[in-house]
Amino acid sequence: MPELKEDEKRCSRCGDSKPRADFAKNRSSRDGLQSYCRPCWADYHQQRQLARGMNIRPRVPGPPGHKCCRPCGMIKPHSEWNRNRSASDGLSTACKECLKAKGRAGHLRRQYGITDAELGAMIEAQAGVCAICQSGPPEHVDHCHKTGRVRGVLCFNCNSAIGKLRDDPAIVRRAATYLEGNAWKPTLEPQGVCRLPS
């Protein structure tokens, strides 16, 4: 058998000498790595699952440097995946786009109690524009901070505007009155005290 280099390890299943990066981590072993390389460990794990009567999803072959995403069914390059050290191939189980969509759906469910389909129906009911300015893209779900009830979907500017106006309808009405040119103007008393008319 040829001697191993410093950055290599021999797989105890296939017997090949491979770079240490081809072995998953294992804290309980002497060198901190699995005794099987990643492909051998994946085959071994699948065989064990089949022996237990578990349903194994078939592998989808792809070109080198690519992987099939099970949620969307597309074969994508490794750059489209997050890293996962515990996985046999060192990549996450879903591509970045699918993980992002899953995270967004989870956020909508936890924060607002709505689904992606319900959000899409709200945007469609608003004709695909912001519920306030009716021109900006609807990107932010607006809700009442007291009751938690979802009010609509707003653009960034309108969402931040009503937040800065403290979600107070009275302040919003005074702002509208001000913009219409009917602002309350303070009168100066002889002593220099400002007094607002009632």
Structural notes for this entry:
- The protein has helices at residues 38-51, 96-112, 116-125, 156-164, 169-179, and strands at residues 8-10, 17-19, 66-68, 75-77, 140-143, 150-154, 187-188, 194-195.
- The longest helix has 17 residues, at 96-112.
- A two-stranded antiparallel ribbon has the order 1-2. It has a two-stranded antiparallel sheet with strand order 3-4. It has a two-stranded antiparallel ribbon with strand order 5-6.
- β3 (66-68) and β4 form a beta hairpin.
- It has 198 residues and is an alpha+beta fold.
- The protein is built from 5 helices and 8 strands; from the N terminus they run ββαββααββααββ.
- It starts with 7 loop residues before the first strand and ends with a strand.
SSE blueprint:
Layout: E1 8-10, E2 17-19, H1 38-51, E3 66-68, E4 75-77, H2 96-112, H3 116-125, E5 140-143, E6 150-154, H4 156-164, H5 169-179, E7 187-188, E8 194-195
Antiparallel strand pairs: 1-2, 3-4, 5-6, 7-8
Describe the structure concisely for a colleague.
It is built from five helices and eight strands, in the order ββαββααββααββ. It is an alpha+beta fold and 198 residues long.
